[in-house]
C-alpha cells in the first residue's frame, strides 16, 4: 500500500512545486543562458531502481568543455569549469530543480537513495549489501542529510540501507523537512567530494 501512497504523494508534490517555483525556474534558465554558451539543462546517465538506467536532469552548472564522465575530484581544478551561475546553483542545490520532471515521469521519488552515476559500481555494490538498490532513487535521502558529499561510500550505502529499513510516510516527511534545513545552511556540499572513495562526477 505504501508504494502507491508514495507515488501519489510524489506526483502531487512535484506538480505543485513545479507550478509554485516556475518563476524561479524560468529565472534560472535565463541566467544560465546569458552566463555561458550551451544548453540550459544537463542530462546524465544514472542508476535507478533495480539497477535500471535513466537520464537525470539538472541545470547545467559547468562549461561545455568540461571532460565528460570524469569525477569532479579527478579534475585538476574543478572550480575553473564551474560557471558563475553554476556556483550559486550548486551551493544552493537549485541545480536539482529539473529533477521534478524525473519525479513526475516516475524515474525518481522525492525521497530515496540518491541515483548513482552509471559507472559508480562500487557504490551500487555496497548498496546491494543493504538492499538499497530495490527502492526508488530520490531527490533527497537519509544519506544526503547526514553528510552528503563528505561521506565515504560504505557509510553512505549503510545510511541508504537504514532508510530502506525505516522508510514510511512520516520518515520521508522528516527527511524532506531536514533537507530544507540543510539546503538553507548549505551543509555537506563539497566540490569533488571529500569522503574516502567519493566519486562525485561532473554536474553532480
Would you kindly provide a written description of the structure presented here, covering whatever features stand out?
It contains seven helices and four strands; from the N terminus they run ααββααβαβαα. The chain has helices at residues 2-20, 22-35, 84-92, 99-105, 121-130, 153-166, 169-185, and strands at 41-47, 53-59, 109-111, 138-140. Strands 1-2 form a two-stranded antiparallel sheet. Strands 3-4 form a two-stranded parallel ribbon. The model is unreliable at 193-202 (pLDDT under 50).
Structural class: mainly alpha
Give the total of beta strands: 4
Oligomer: single chain
Contiguous uncertain segments of 5+ residues: 193-202
Report the span from N to C terminus: 33 Å
Q: What's the mean pLDDT score?
A: 88
Total helices: the number is 7
The biggest sheet amounts to: 2 strands, antiparallel
Strand share of the residues? 5-15%
Helix % is 40-55%
From the spread of the alpha carbons, the general shape counts as globular
The ordered H/E elements are HHEEHHEHEHH
Which strand order do you get reading across the main beta sheet?
A: 1-2
- Rg (CA only): 16 Å
Amino acid at each position: 500500500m505504501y508504494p502507491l501512497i508514495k507515488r501519489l504523494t510524489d506526483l502531487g508534490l512535484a506538480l505543485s512545486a513545479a507550478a509554485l517555483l516556475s518563476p524561479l525556474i524560468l529565472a534560472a534558465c535565463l541566467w544560465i543562458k546569458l552566463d555561458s554558451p550551451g544548453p540550459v539543462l544537463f542530462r546524465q546517465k544514472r542508476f535507478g531502481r533495480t539497477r535500471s538506467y535513466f537520464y537525470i536532469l539538472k541545470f547545467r552548472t559547468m562549461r561545455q568543455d568540461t571532460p565528460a564522465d570524469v569525477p569532479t575530484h579527478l579534475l585538476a581544478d574543478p572550480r575553473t569549469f564551474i560557471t558563475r551561475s553554476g556556483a550559486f546553483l550548486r551551493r544552493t542545490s537549485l541545480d536539482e530543480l529539473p529533477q521534478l520532471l524525473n519525479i513526475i515521469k516516475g524515474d525518481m521519488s522525492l525521497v530515496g537513495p540518491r541515483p548513482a552515476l552509471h559507472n559508480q559500481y562500487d557504490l551500487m555494490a555496497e548498496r546491494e549489501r543493504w538492499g538499497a538498490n530495490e527502492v526508488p532513487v530520490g531527490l533527497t535521502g537519509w544519506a544526503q542529510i547526514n553528510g552528503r558529499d563528505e561521506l565515504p561510500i560504505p557509510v553512505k550505502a549503510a545510511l541508504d540501507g537504514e532508510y530502506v529499513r525505516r522508510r514510511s510516510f512520516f520518515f520521508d516527511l522528516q527527511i524532506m523537512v531536514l533537507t530544507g534545513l540543510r539546503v538553507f545552511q548549505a551543509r555537506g556540499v563539497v566540490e569533488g567530494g571529500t569522503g574516502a572513495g567519493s566519486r562525485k562526477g561532473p554536474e553532480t
